[in-house]
Amino acid sequence: MPPHLRIACIADNTKRAREAYRELAAQYNFVNIPKKPDPSTAKGLDTIVVLGGDGFMLQTMHQYMGYNVPFYGMNCGTVGFLMNSYFLDDLPRHIEEARRHTLHPLSMYARDVHGKSFEMLAINEVSLFRQGRQAAKISITIDHVVRISEFAGDGIIVATPAGSTAYNSSAGGPIIPLGSNILALTPLSPSHPRRWKGALLNHHSSVMFETLDPVKRPVNAVADFTEVCDVVSVAIHEDTKTRITVLFDIEHNLEERIIKEQFM
Prior knowledge:
Blueprint: E1 7-11, H1 15-27, E2 47-52, H2 54-64, E3 71-75, H3 91-97, E4 99-103, E5 106-112, E6 117-122, E7 125-130, E8 136-142, E9 145-153, E10 155-159, H4 167-170, E11 182-188, E12 199-202, E13 207-211, E14 219-223, E15 226-228, E16 231-238, E17 244-248, H5 254-261
Parallel strand pairs: 1-2, 2-3, 3-17
Antiparallel strand pairs: 4-17, 5-6, 5-16, 7-10, 7-14, 8-9, 8-13, 10-11, 11-12, 13-16, 14-15
């Protein structure tokens, strides 16, 4: 490994990812970083290589985004939309030649029925779900204007472009090209308004959800994989101050993948 390039490597706890780590560690002198992030250990670090699937990549970006170094994923899992192909040779060259994509996460501020507040970030999406058998009833406010006074359904999603190919796409939401400066607002099984298909929002938009009957019709909010139960209100906006850099090989760049997803 070139002496000027300092690389850390983190592997998922699966057989395939651990084997890949052993192969790479035998060839490259990786920098050790603690499982509990400590920004002081990031000094001089150039890249974090992540071995696993999209879920583990997302988890690792959340865990180490404070390091302010790029993430280079290598697919050792089942889904690899955010990952590059796994290989053994010329890792430093691939990292140096990779294309950079900057992601801005969503900031979610939620308040529950007990008055407790929660703040968290979502790289893919913020989702609201009904907790019980009855449909959730939610008011939707965009930029301080009430757009739907009473939405009824299983829930609703606000997705970033990078996350638009994940749960948002499975729920019938649009796939959004990177650089489009758009967020997807996607309903989950809406019963009212029955034919509402969702909306595309400017990425600077502020979104406010308020549950209309939080006791009878409890709703949970999820920022990527972190869940808050029994929410009363959820405020969402793009966190432009937080920058997450992801590296992609030229032949597997994220922009091309998002375009391809729209023609599959």
